[in-house]
Design goal:
The protein is about 75% helix and about 0% strand. With about 260 residues, the protein is mainly α. It has one domain: Four Helix Bundle (Hemerythrin (Met), subunit A), CATH 1.20.120. The longest helix has 30 residues. The radius of gyration is 20 Å and the shape is globular.
Length: about 260
């Protein structure tokens, strides 16, 4: 493997989500091999294109029908490959910025809302039942709760200890345990370990789950899985963060 590919592989997120880890992120690296030296292609522009592709995928789901659903599944994957590319390119060029990271994460949150909202609508059109719409709304709300509870916990812990974000960043450092230079056995072992992440039901799982549901036209079962998983993880992670705050309390904070 040449030096350029080695450097690109090093830009891969250390603890990628399931599906991102071994499909869309590696595809992003391959695409970046051609794009990373093109000056007019920038990480922020890739973020914008990724979001536009996500919007087009949403419209395809709303239009509905077999071929539009398949097109949407392809576009969802393309959007996610681009979503991986922007961060990889920024790290390769050493131009990572807080504002770039901010908009990248904001668009990620919005596109999940768009995709599953559209899926709920499409399933409603198919079944003439409001249940899929309710499932989509519940799933989206509790997926948002996962991020919101993290934000609240970070705000409270930082108010107690300004060094808390730095300490958490160091604690969450993950070593590279796979890659093109590490041999078949090591990579197969890594691939096996990665499969446990499917139970996290995060964005990487959504990409796969929603795409399969669109290709096989099984939106209602997928929405049940989406809603159920997000209720569980939203409540569980909120409880865990509250428990951690209580255990780490050292300063009494007044409610706003």
């Amino acid at each position: 493997m040449n030096d350029k590919m080695t450097q690109l592989w090093a830009t891969k997120t250390r603890d990628d989500e399931w599906w991102s880890s071994f499909v869309t992120a590696p595809l992003g690296i391959l695409a970046n091999y051609c794009a990373v030296e093109v000056s007019w292609i920038t990480p922020n522009r890739i973020t914008a294109v990724s979001f536009l592709v996500a919007v087009v995928a949403t419209l395809a789901i709303i239009v509905g029908g077999t071929w539009w659903f398949i097109a949407a599944a392809i576009l969802i994957h393309l959007s996610h490959v681009l979503d991986c590319m922007d961060g990889q390119m920024a790290r390769y060029r050493q131009v990572s910025s807080p504002v770039g990271s901010y908009y990248d994460r904001i668009t990620d949150q919005v596109q999940v809302t768009l995709w599953f909202g559209a899926a709920g609508y499409a399933a409603y059109v198919q079944t003439n039942s409001v249940t899929p719409v309710f499932l989509a709304l519940i799933g989206i709300a509790f997926y948002g709760l996962r991020g919101y509870s993290k934000y609240i916990a970070l705000e409270i812990e930082t108010a107690r200890n300004p060094a808390y974000p730095v300490a958490m960043a160091q604690r969450n450092t993950v070593e590279i345990t796979a890659g093109p230079t590490m041999g078949l056995r090591v990579n197969l072992a890594w691939f096996g370990r990665e499969q446990r992440k499917i139970l996290a039901f995060d964005e990487g799982v959504f990409i796969f789950m929603l795409s399969v549901a669109l290709v096989f036209d099984q939106l209602v079962p997928m929405l049940w899985v989406f809603a159920t998983s997000q209720v569980f993880w939203g409540l569980y992670r909120s409880w865990r963060r509250g428990k951690s705050i209580d255990e780490n309390r050292g300063v009494t904070l007044q409610k706003k």
